[in-house]
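Customer escalation, tier 2.

The customer says the design service returned an amino acid string that "doesn't look like it belongs to this structure." They asked us to rerun it and document both sides in this ticket. The original structure tokens are below, unchanged.
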């Protein structure tokens, strides 16, 4: 542990450390997009609209995996920073086993409720009810695999195995893409083939890590006897509540977007929004991956009481995010034609609608990275409350306000602009909370020359 997390991080070795986590998230987003490409081109726009309509429901059920992964990573890294490796391994095992149990519960609840939820989303009204139920049911049967995959994405960096984590997620993505080609394009299995390809890809991303951590017992973390205490599990859930809130909020908001889009443009509006979400998720995954990769470093520095290095990592992270934000905005504008064309180029009217919406949404890339990192930063400091406030305001309150109010002024363009509205107002909240807590945690204090935390300091915080 000491050789990795306790080192002084320069821009070069910070980027080198977090890059595998970034690649993991990018590959995860890409192989999620692969389903959309194959479905839209080989199963038709009706099937494509079905996937986009039911997807927020699936992500809502999987949100527990994001909570356990991010919150558990912060708690375990803090425990390692305090020097208690045995306890850290016990918490690690506890969280993995708990994910399996909760995943089984989510499968039962999801399969029983997918049809009424699809009806609630107006799937029957648009004539796509059975397609939504089919795709949703198959994916819900494998929801445990999806949750475990999300958990291990956070834990690989923590276990000092980021490259292995990248290899696993690439393997999962390649499996999904190949099976999409076989099932959807080759055997013409439609939505059933796309759903099976997704679940089997997730099986690679979840079962391989379980086998590795169960067999390889000479590393920092491995699966063994769990710490049979409820408090660490609650702490992990509290730490990661913001990430779960983000996913749940996005699910609720996406459902609301679909409601608005059906009113303004029917299922074509849902398809256009789906294309934008696929592309946005690829860009957004860079910020999410960076936050996942840097969280254990911040958690370790905080647990070790090293304020100076905590300050150093924070400043470097903000500069890296600023550079990425501008670069992604420029890239999104440049790709405004080719990316939508891949999905809906055959339908001229839908293509034009998608391009306009994607251009308006592109402005979020200038802002959203700071909000994503801000929430993750407080999670790493084991301050789940502040992290949750940022996520709750950004992904739910401001999004709902935007998607309900802006269409009254600008019509369909108001729906596309709601994301930008939410991120713009959220960054003022993130900045305010950063400045209000800087003395408590010792960042941005005296140019980074703040003294190390003492035991009493950590007890107070």
């Amino acid at each position: 542990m000491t050789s990795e997390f306790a080192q002084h991080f320069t821009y070069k070795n910070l980027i080198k450390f977090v890059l595998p986590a970034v690649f993991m998230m990018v590959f995860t987003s890409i192989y999620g997009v692969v389903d959309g490409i194959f479905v839209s081109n080989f199963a038709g726009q009706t099937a494509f609209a079905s996937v986009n309509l039911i997807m927020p429901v699936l992500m809502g059920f999987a949100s527990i995996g994001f909570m356990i992964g991010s919150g558990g990573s912060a708690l375990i890294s803090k425990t390692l920073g305090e020097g208690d490796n045995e306890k850290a391994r016990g918490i690690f095992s506890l969280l993995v086993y708990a994910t399996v149990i909760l995943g089984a519960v989510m499968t039962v609840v999801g399969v029983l409720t997918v049809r009424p939820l699809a009806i609630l989303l107006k799937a029957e009204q648009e004539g796509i009810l059975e397609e939504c139920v089919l795709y949703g049911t198959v994916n819900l049967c494998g929801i445990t695999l999806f949750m475990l995959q999300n958990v291990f994405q956070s834990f690989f960096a923590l276990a000092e195995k980021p490259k292995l984590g990248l290899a696993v997620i690439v393997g999962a993505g390649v499996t999904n893409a190949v099976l999409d080609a076989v099932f959807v394009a080759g055997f013409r299995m439609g939505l059933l083939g796309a759903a099976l390809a997704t679940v089997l890809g997730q099986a690679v991303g979840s079962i391989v890590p379980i086998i590795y951590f169960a067999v390889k017992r000479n590393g920092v973390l491995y699966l063994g006897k769990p710490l049979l205490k409820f408090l660490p599990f609650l702490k992990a859930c509290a730490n990661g509540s913001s990430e779960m809130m983000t996913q749940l909020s996005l699910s609720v908001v996406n459902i609301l977007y679909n409601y608005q889009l059906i009113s303004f443009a029917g299922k074509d509006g849902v398809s256009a929004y789906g294309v934008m979400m696929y592309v946005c998720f690829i860009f957004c995954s860079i910020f999410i991956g960076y936050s996942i990769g840097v969280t254990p470093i911040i958690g370790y520095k905080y647990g070790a009481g090293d304020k100076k290095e905590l300050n150093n990592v924070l400043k470097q992270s903000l500069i890296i995010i600023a550079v990425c934000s501008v670069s992604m905005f420029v890239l999104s504008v440049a790709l405004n034609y080719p990316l939508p064309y891949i999905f809906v180029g055959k339908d001229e009217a839908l293509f034009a609608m998608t391009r306009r919406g994607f251009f308006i949404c592109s402005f979020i890339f200038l802002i959203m990275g700071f909000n994503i990192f801000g929430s993750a930063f407080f999670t790493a400091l084991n301050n789940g409350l502040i992290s949750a406030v940022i996520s709750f305001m950004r992904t739910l309150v401001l999004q709902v306000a935007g998607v309900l109010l802006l269409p009254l002024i600008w019509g369909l363009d108001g729906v596309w602009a709601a994301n930008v509205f939410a991120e713009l107002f959220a960054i003022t909240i993130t900045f305010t909370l950063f400045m209000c807590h800087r003395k408590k945690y010792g960042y941005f204090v005296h140019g980074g020359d703040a003294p190390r935390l003492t035991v009493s300091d950590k007890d107070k915080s």
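Tier 2 assessment: The sequence is consistent with the input. The first helix runs from residue 2 to 5. Residues 447-461 have pLDDT under 50 and may be disordered. Sent an explanation to the customer and offered a walkthrough call.
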